[in-house]
Amino acid sequence: MSQDSRTNIVVPTIGESVKTAQLGRWLKKVGEPVAAGEPVVSVDSDKASIEVPSPAAGVLLEVLAQDGDEVLIGATVGVIGQGAAQPAAAPVVAAPVVAAPERAATPSAKGPQSGPAARSAAAEHGVDISAVEGSGVRGRVLARDVEAAAQKAPSANTGVVPPHLLPVASAAPAPAAPVAGLVERVPMTPLRRTIARRLVEAQQTAAMLTTFNEVDMSRVMELRKKYQEKFEKKHGLKLGFMSFFVKAAIEALKAFPAVNAEIDDTDPDRPVVVYKRFYNVGVAVSTERGLVVPVVKGADAMSLAETEGAIAAFGKKARDGKLGPDDFKEGTFTISNGGVFGSLMSTPILNPPQVGILGMHAIQERPVGVDGQIVLRPMMYLALSYDHRIIDGREAVSFLVRIKELVEAPERLLLEV
Fold first, then answer.
1. Other C-beta atoms within 10 Å of 277: how many?
2. Is 388 in the active site?
3. How buried is 64 (Cβ within 10 angstroms: 0-12 exposed, 13-18 middle, 19+ buried)?
4. 167 DSSP assignment
5. Cβ count near 344 (within 10 Å)
6. How far apart are CA 310 and CA 248, in angstroms?
7. Longest dimension (CA), the chain
8. pTM over 0.70
9. pLDDT of 206-243, one tens digit each?
10. Mean pLDDT of 338-345
11. What is the per-residue burial (b if ≥16 Cβ within 10 Å, else e) of 162-183?
């Protein structure tokens, strides 16, 4: 078969700041026929999980990267052709379209397996990659392993302390070795690593505080019960609670614009507060890979039905692993509903650079005082976490009270009063 009949499967650009990704799994086996545009492999990054379509019709001839491998954006991970399939290649990530220049010695053939992303990082940091312990699949050295080794490397100016000046530590018993088969080490996926990094950053960089309130869900539940059948018949979807909270949050954001702002600290000596006059509401969705927050853009211009439809569409895309980078961009405020898992109360963590996040929780019948009488009402605790650097406590409390008032009297959402 001629070289011209071979077409490379290339890792696509996923986002401006994304340099590497993790191969999720091959959707086709070597030797299987593939139609042009048919998904052939899934790729996970710290932004999203996507399915890579086949660039041509033919047969999957070669697989150049294995499930779980770290790959560079632009790298060739497989080959489509018209002839007979070739034996599967060794699990080594193919070089990117434009390879990074090597500035350090490359590992020997007997060293640990590594991809171009790790080798590029080793060259950048001057790290001997053959001495780095890999955390990837089959002990593969990943870029993060190299960066961790570079951070642990002693400074050139660090002197050697004479043995007689070293502190004497009391001998401690060595920890017992784990019983074989009872411990499993699984590398964190790019998405999980990004979630972890952003949560830590949010707590370290923002003056985060949480205020609580509770809302009587009686009126909203009555509306849903009364109009659910007609709503579903007309719009083809069920009326949930989230759309009411999205609309209530937007009205509250209009009344308290600081909650819809962000801090631009590009110049740390002259930070700027950026007030946004548009309302893109992120709705947290739980997936098998972790929590993601797709953004309902222009939510202020949507009807209740359109809002519900957008949320339902994101939920389906998340379950199918088809959310793309554009689905996460330009959010101004986030709503998270831990109540679907039974959470009664929590303190949600900010989604930077946003300065506010609303937490919904489980609806539970509780005794409350109404007109001098103790009655049972379906109550929900609400939580607003906010950045105290630009939002005062009075603003935060008033914002949450505004949401409470609108949800308890949902007709006000329609009248915008």
1. 9
2. yes
3. buried
4. P
5. 12
6. 16
7. 87
8. no
9. 899 999 999 999 999 999 999 999 999 999 999 999 99
10. 90
11. eeeeeeeeeeeeeeeeeeeeee
**Residue bearing tokens 């492999």:** 41
Domains parsed from the chain with CATH numbers:
3-81 (2.40.50.100), 203-415 (3.30.559.10)
Q: Return the residue matching tokens 């053939």.
A: 109
pLDDT at 104: 39
Tokens of 295: 């953004």
Annotated catalytic, 269? no
Radius of gyration of the chain (CA): 27
CA 112 to chain centre: 30
Contact predicate 239/308, CB 8 Å: yes
**29 Cα distance to chain centroid:** 29
Residue 329 CA to residue 15 CA, distance in Å, equals 10
Residues 68-98 have pLDDT tens digits of 888 888 899 999 998 655 554 444 444 443 3
Are 9 and 79 a contacting pair, CB within 8 Å?
yes
Set 265, 320, 326, 392: catalytic member:
392
Which residues fall within 8 angstroms of residue 273, CB to CB, at 6 or more apart? 258, 261, 262, 263, 264, 390
